[in-house]
Amino acid sequence: MQENYLAKWLNNELSETELSEFKKSDAYATYMKILNASKQLEAPNFDADSAYENFKNAQDIQDVKVVPLRPFKSFLRVAAVIVILLTGSYFFVNSLDESYSTQLAERTKVVLPDNSKIILNADSKISFSEKKWDKERNVALTGEAFFKVAKGKKFTVSTEAGTVSVLGTQFNVENRADFFEVTCYEGLVSVLYKNKEQKLPAGTSFLVVNGKIMDDTAIKNGQPSWVNNESSFKSIPLKYVLAEFERQYNVKVKTENVDTNQLFTGTFSNTAIKIALESISTPSKISYKLEGENVLFYGEDTP
Amino acid sequence: MSNVCEEQIFGSVFKANSKTIFNYIYYKFGNEEKANDAVQEAFVKLWENCAKVTPEKAKSYLYTVANNLYLNVIKAEKVRLKYADLHSNAISNESPEYILEEKQFKQKLDNALNDLPENQRTTFLLNRIDGKKYAEIAEMEGVSIKAIEKRMHLALKSLREKIDGI
Predict the structure, then answer these.
(1) Which residues of B touch A72 (CB under 8 A)?
(2) What percent of chain A has pLDDT over 90?
(3) Chain B residue nearest residue A33, CA to CA
(4) Looking at chain A, which residues constitute the CATH 3.55.50.30 domain(s)?
(5) Cα–Cα distance measured from residue A233 to residue B105, given in angstroms and rounded to the nearest whole number
(6) Are B14 and B21 in contact (CB under 8 A)?
(7) Which of B21, B25, B28, B29 could cysteine-pair with B35, CB 3.0–4.6 Å?
(8) Could you tell me if B143 lies within 8 Å of chain A, comparing CB atoms?
C-alpha cells in the first residue's frame, strides 16, 4: 500500500489492485461506516448574510467614505508632545539647585559633591547647584550650619547678612533674624559683611547682633557645641538664646517680665529639656513653666 | 484594476469565505463565539489592508489572520457537530435495531473526532463537511498537500481504531 493510502482512497487515487486489497481488509467496513456517517455531519449554523450585515454596521462600509487612518501620525503627535515635556522638565529639574533643609528640633548631615561636609542645625536650609559645582563652590544658607570644607577652589557661603569664603577649613555660620555669627575652627575664613572683608583665623569668631559688630573672641573646642548636642553662648542677648531653644526643642517660648536683651553666657543641652530650662533660667535669675509645647519664662517679681 | 476596497468585491469575498472561516476556527477550537469573532476580525483586517491585498491573495490572507488570532490562546473545547436528519421525511424501512446501531456508531464517531489532534480534525472535517480539496486545505493551513494527506490518513486511521476499540 502506498503512503497515506487512506487519504488517496478518499480521493479515488488508489490503483485497482490497491483498492481490491483494501476492500478485503477487516478495517474496510468501519472506514465505509465512517464515511457514511460523516456525510451527515453538519457544522453549527452560520449565516453569512447576517454576518456581513454585522460587519458593515461595525465598519460603516456603506455610507462613509473611507478615510485612511494613520494611527501612527496621531501617535507621533502625542509622542512629540511627551518628548518636549520630558526634555523641558529634565532641563528645568536639572537647573534647579540641590537643597536640603531641617525642621525644628532636627539636624542633618549633607555631603557635597567634593566630599565637603555640612551639618545643618535645626530650622535651617542650604542649597547649591550640583551642575556648577566644579566651577564654583557656592552654598546658600539660611539658619545655621557647620562646614568641613575639602581643600580646593574658593568655597563660598552666601547668607542674607554676609558672605563667607574659604579655601579649605572648618567653620560654623549662623544667620538668624538680626543675628550673624561665623566661627572659624580651622584654617582661615574670610567674612564679607557690609562690603567689609574680615579675616578670621582659627579659633576666632565674627558676630553681628542687630546690625552691630560685637567683639567676640573665640572658642575652645574644634567644633561648635551644637554638633555635640549643646548650644553654647557667650555674651549673647537672651532673646537669641530663647530663639535657639525654640528651634532645638520645637516649642513656643513666651516671656513675662523678662529683659530679653540681657546678655547670656552659658550652654544648654539640646537633648534634655528640663536640664536645658534650668541652664537658661538659673543664671538669668528667672523662672519657667513648661506646659506641653509651651514654655513661659517669667521674672521673679511677677505674681 | 479590481481592488478588495471596492465594496462589491469585498462583499463577494466575504460571502465566499466567511462560512468556511467560521467552520475552520470552529473545527479547531470548538467554540462558536470565537469562530464568529474570528470571521469579523479577519475581515476587519482585510478591510483595513484592502489596498495592499489583491483579490487573489485575499483568501489566504483571511485564513492567516483568523489562524493567528487564537494561536495558543484558547484551549480547544469539545467540538459539537449536528447530524443532518436525512430520514425525517422519508418513510423509514429500517429496523429499530439498525437505527439504534447507527445512533451508537454516531456517538462513537463524535467521541473519536473530539479525541483527534486539532489539525487532523480540522483537515478531516473541512474535507468531509465542507468538501474542501486537499489543495485548498493546504492553502488555508499554509502547509504542503502531502502534509494534508498525511493528516487525513492519520485522522481516518485513529477514528477507525477508536471506533473498533483497537
Answers:
(1) none
(2) 1
(3) B105
(4) 229-298
(5) 108
(6) no
(7) B25
(8) no
- Which three cell numbers, joined as nine digits, stand for A215? 567683639
Query: Residue A182: CB partners within 8 Å, gap ≥ 6?
Result: A162, A164, A171, A172, A173, A174, A189, A191, A200, A205, A206, A207
For chain A, residues classed under CATH 2.60.120.1440 are 102-214
Q: Is A180 exposed, middle or buried (0-12, 13-18, 19+ CB in 10 A)?
A: buried
Q: Is A46 on the interface with B (CB under 8 A)?
A: yes
pLDDT in tens, B54-75: 888 888 899 988 888 877 666 6
The H-assigned helical ranges of B49-95 are 55-69
Residue B83, class by beta-carbon neighbours within 10 Å (0-12 exposed, 13-18 middle, 19+ buried)? middle
CB contact under 8 A, B150 and A4: yes
d(CA B30, CA B70) in angstroms, rounded, equals: 12
pTM exceeds 0.95, yes or no: no
Cβ-based contacts of A6 with chain B (< 8 Å): 152-153, 156-157
Contact assignment for A52 to B15 by CB distance below 8 Å:
yes
Classify residue B93 by its DSSP letter: -
Confidence of residue A266 (pLDDT cuts 50, 70, 90): confident
Q: Identify the burial level of A83 via C-beta atoms within 10 angstroms of its C-beta, where 0-12 means exposed, 13-18 middle and 19 or more buried.
A: exposed
Q: E strands of B56-141, at which residues?
A: 82-83
Q: Which fold has domain A102-214?
A: Jelly Rolls (2.60.120)
Rounded distance between C-alpha atoms, residue A17 and residue A191, angstroms: 117
DSSP state of A291: E
Q: Taking residues A207-211, what's their average pLDDT?
A: 82
Question: CA angle A7-A11-A14, nearest 5°?
Answer: 80
- A128 phi/psi in degrees, rounded to 5: -155, 160
- Mean per-residue pLDDT, B93-99: 78
Strands A155-158 and A179-186: unpaired
Residue A52 to residue B39, Cβ atoms within 8 A: no
